[in-house]
Design brief:
203 residues, 43% strand, 5-stranded antiparallel β-sheet, globular, 2 helices
Amino acid sequence: MQKKIKWAACAMMSLLLVTGCSGAKLPEGDVKVVNQQVSGVIDLLLQSADYGGNQSTVTSMLLPTGSSYDIKMAVEQYEAGQLVNTIEVPTYTTEEMEKNSLIHLILNIGKEDVKSIFSIAEVDNEKTTDKKNPEYKMEKTNAPAINFEKRVTLDQYGGELGKEFVLAAYTTGGSSDMNLETYQDELANYETVSIVKVTITKK
């Protein structure tokens, strides 16, 4: 889906500005992921009152220049420690990455009878004539609601291409927040768990 998306003041195309809003230092690795503050990208979220509080997550990702990439996202759902369902988000292929090109991963998690929406967005280079007011293209995937009590999101990540990483976890039951790095050892501690995983591969 092609869509023009207006950035808020803090959410610019430059990676320097993306990290500069919070003063965060960039992680190491070919895949660099930074969790953004929702207040900085309200227009990009395209969220409504249905996705308030801790239901929206936005991360921005920097990839090596000169190539395009496949982004694979999936949600693994567990009950009492056992995998019961997997939601597959269609693979998204990026444009060829240029300097400071960013990919945005947006999770709007619905509860009860409100659907969840998983989105991937990037600048549409063909339609953008003014880099200060870029045109964006976005792919959105609708999914069932995910009821949860606690959310844990990735703050920063730096890793290799082709290596799977966890973007967020949504849990019910349990007395503490899940550790995204050791979640497999903690699944039995919760009634339900939904794990959002991402893998980036070079085309």
